[in-house]
Design goal:
Elements lengths: L2 H4 L2 E4 L10 H11 L3 E4 L6 H17 L4 E4 L2 H6 L4 E4 L6 H8 L4 E6 L2 H9 L4 E4 L16 H10 L4 E4 L17 E4 L1 H4 L4 H16 L2
Parallel strand pairs: 1-2, 1-8, 2-3, 3-4, 4-5, 5-6, 6-7, 7-8
Helix pairs in contact: 2-3, 2-9
């Protein structure tokens, strides 16, 4: 799967929604429903448990031929041989991450401005995540990016752009015409009662959204 295709429906895990199902079961349901990329985001697990979980989820992603990305933690990504790493502006610089993971792994960078997006592209990023495009409960300190800014970032760089932040079924189509290549979603997927069915709906909508 090429990078642009992989960005269409990008699932970010969030342990807040683990309950009736384990995180692994939730990810499997999302994979069955059609997510095109999975990012494992763990802020509080110890390294041992994180690595075990990462290997399990990576194995499920491989079955569905979907890229598996680790958020922030380059060490874990290298140990489990993840398909890539995603970093924010306050994490390890993208250039340094690229040196550590080599040329063949995916590198994603969170950005809010055209300048940050251009720097990420020059540093070797394969894609950028732009947001928050809507108010989000996942990141209380997230800076909101306007539709005009999102459109400008999409036009300014040559790598895929993924919108992130507060995207739900009822507001996703507001992103039409911004030039993005996909949407990254957390609660819209993982808080659903029926994750697989919900993901199928979101996948259809995402395909409609990115048609240019």
């Amino acid at each position: 799967m090429e990078v642009k295709q992989a960005m269409l429906l990008y699932a970010l895990t969030d342990r807040a929604w683990v309950g009736r199902q384990t995180l692994l079961e939730q990810v499997e349901a999302a994979l069955k429903g059609g997510v095109t990329c999975v990012q494992l985001r763990e802020k509080h697990l110890n390294a041992t448990d994180f690595l075990v979980e990462a290997r399990q989820i990576k194995e499920r992603c491989q079955v569905y031929h979907v890229p598996f990305i680790i958020n922030d933690n380059v060490d874990i990504a290298l140990q489990c041989d993840a398909d890539g790493v995603h970093v924010g502006q306050s994490d390890m610089p993208a250039e340094q991450v690229r040196q550590l993971i080599g040329p063949n792994k995916l590198l994603g960078v969170s950005v809010q401005t055209i300048d940050q997006a251009k720097v990420a592209e020059q540093a070797g990023a394969d894609y950028v995540g732009v947001g928050a495009v809507f108010t989000t409960s996942t990141k209380a300190d997230a800076v909101e990016v306007t539709m005009d800014e999102l459109r400008a970032i999409s036009a300014a760089i040559h790598i895929p752009v993924v919108a992130i932040g507060g995207i739900q079924e009822n507001n996703m189509m507001q992103l039409a015409g911004t030039g993005i290549d996909g949407v990254a979603m957390v609660s819209a997927i993982f808080s659903a009662e029926q994750i697989e069915e919900q993901t199928r709906t979101l996948y259809r909508m995402a395909r409609e959204l990115v048609k240019e």
